[in-house]
Amino acid sequence: MNDHIPIFYPSKFYGAFLKTYNDKSTIVTITATDGDPRDEGNLHFEISNITCTGNLHPQDPAFKIGERDGKVTPTFAITSDMNGYCMFPVNVTDNPDPNGTVHTVSTTVQINIISDDDLVEFVFMNKDQDVVKLQETIQNTIDVEFKNYNYESFMADDVYSAEYGNTTAHFYFLDSITQTPVEASEILGNLTDFEKFTQLKKNLARIDIYLGNFPSSNVVQEVMDYMKIWLMVTTFVLASLLMVLSIGFFFRNRALTQRIKNLSTTKFGSQESGLNRAGVAAPTTNKHAVEGSNPVYNSENYKQEIEAENDSGNSDDDSDLFGVENNPEFDI
């Protein structure tokens, strides 16, 4: 008798459509169980009503599913400019019994376009079947660390290594509000924090999932990203300081140049200064200094006075005109 209905696990499925996938790549595998022994491994899967968002306009149907194994594969290839996601229901039907009793149950599948920059690599010290079995619980545990960001985690794939006895799984994260992928650097920027990583490790250990250290490739890339940001900030700060120093140097240099110009001999003793016509001794200067030593007397008036004195000194001894009579311009 057909006494049981099929049950999906998990209740909702998410798949990552990577840009490296082709039409033979399995994006996600739909799994269901049935309590009737004759239905175990003998269920029928079917896709219907595919809708896509963003700039996705694939051919119809965009995806197909294995009738018996539940493997979802694409019928189109994505390009680098594509983004968005596709959603569709998947029906699972068991086999009718002699009385014609049959059960059909539906679940929802969401296929997200994911780039390599959106994938975060986790290493679990568990077998792959244990990781798959607790996939939904693992995702919920990881989501706790990002509850303030409204990020949801999803496992894209998993690979078991018999040599090292661990499972490498790639996770991607979606913003639950915009339903858009979150870059891996944003996730690693949080999880590489020692306290958060330690807390996540403890929480996963409570469900017997043991998280290993992040692969060096993840950490190195994260460090490089932060180094780029640091270098950009440092360059901006240094450029700003250089600009401030240049402006300060310009105004300081102009002020000093003006002071030197004002104190120069030529300027001080020039006709424009007015000091040569003042007829007074400048403070702290020697009135009897020779020309060039005292800029006050470096003038045409002073030179004429010196020439007049020379003329007086060269006049005749009995002359009362102080040598003026020897001047051809003097008319008696």
SS-based class: alpha+beta
Overall geometry: elongated
H/E element sequence: EEEEEEEEEEEHHEEEHHHHH
Ranges where pLDDT stays below 50 over 5 or more residues in a row are: 267-278
CATH class of the largest domain: Mainly Beta
Question: What's this, in brief?
Answer:
This protein has 332 residues and is an alpha+beta fold.
Outline the structure in words:
With 332 residues, the protein is α+β, with helices and mostly antiparallel strands. Helices cover 31% and strands 22% of the residues. It has 7 helices and 14 strands. A hairpin with a 4-residue loop joins strand 12 and strand 13. The N and C termini lie far apart (159 Å).
List the helices and strands and how they pair.
Layout: E1 7-8, E2 13-18, E3 28-29, E4 32-33, E5 44-47, E6 51-52, E7 63-65, E8 71-74, E9 85-93, E10 104-114, E11 120-124, H1 128-133, H2 135-144, E12 151-161, E13 166-175, E14 181-182, H3 184-191, H4 194-205, H5 216-263, H6 265-268, H7 300-313
Parallel strand pairs: 2-10
Antiparallel strand pairs: 1-4, 3-8, 5-9, 6-9, 7-8, 9-10, 11-13, 12-13, 13-14
